[in-house]
User: What shape does this take?
Amino acid sequence: MNIYNLTRDEMEQYFLKIGSKKFHADQLFSWLYEKRISSISDITNIKKEILQQLASDYSFSKLRLVQVERDVDVCKYLFELNDGEHIEAVLMMHDYGNSVCISSQVGCNMGCRFCESGRRKKVRNLETWEMVTQLLMIEEDLKKRVSHVVVMGIGEPFDNYDNLLKFFLIINHPKGLAIGARHITVSTCGIVPKILEFSNFPLQINLAISLHAPNDELRNQIMPINKVYPLKELIQVLEIYLEKTNRRITFEYILLAGVNDTEEYAVELAKLVGHLNCYINLIPYNETNNLEFRRSNTVQIMKFYDILKKNRLNVTIRREFGSKISAACGQLRSKKEEL
Ligand code: SAH
Assistant: This one.
């Protein structure tokens, strides 16, 4: 077990279980997340016997940073895990703060046709500590605070649901990384039962849905998950989610030339989501050498955008970071492992 797997509550339970006091959880959280110790021997205010027990029960190790690609406002990190697997995280420097995109799994089973990550099937879920320490290590490299987190790297976060929720509890905790829930976003391809469960999660984390097509026929072709959870079920569960949480959701829509970017599709999209409290984020496709999809040209992107605007939807076109440094999902890992 790794110490960065534990939420504050779990840490309190641990100290009680070993016959010690709850308040050590406060102290330990502060050593891990405020003082950022690199070894258990740096801890000075907890009794030796307890530290010995702690050291025999938990590892304090982080990931191994193997490669960083740097650009003006973006850095891409490649980490090696204990079992030799690789994952990526991307740091984006915005004027409002530093945002990090983290991975949630090794590989991904969702099989979206346009996505590089899915070319490698899921090997395993990331444990909570492997998600938490992506952030710790990036802050260490950056020497600045990470203010925003998006779970949009490799993997389907709702296919690793329990570890994901613990990750949120740790990074949101005031004595943890204290990242405000509204500064955290999780993106899913649409695992309907998990969206329903997530509507009961107490933290006000933003939800983004990878939509990419406005009807089942097209969505089935590019996102196999749609055959399991078709659009009708997806939209229904989002209605419940919105009703329960009173929040706003984001739809991500990658524009793929000649595939999903026509004016007809824009009209259909407006009809599909027009009644929901939502943003639509149009994403210029990040082309990869291994896949045949191409990005829509700017004229087509603007036509699509205008139609949604005319239908009074909240639309933005995603600012692009890192197309020079293979920052599209899964590209850096693919290069490393020459898939
Ligand atoms: N599995 C989750 C999160 C990871 S993918 C999900 O599907 O939402 C994060 C986002 O990046 C998704 O919207 C995905 O469709 C998009 N994406 C994947 N490959 C891309 C590429 N080459 N260019 C732009 N966006 C891409």
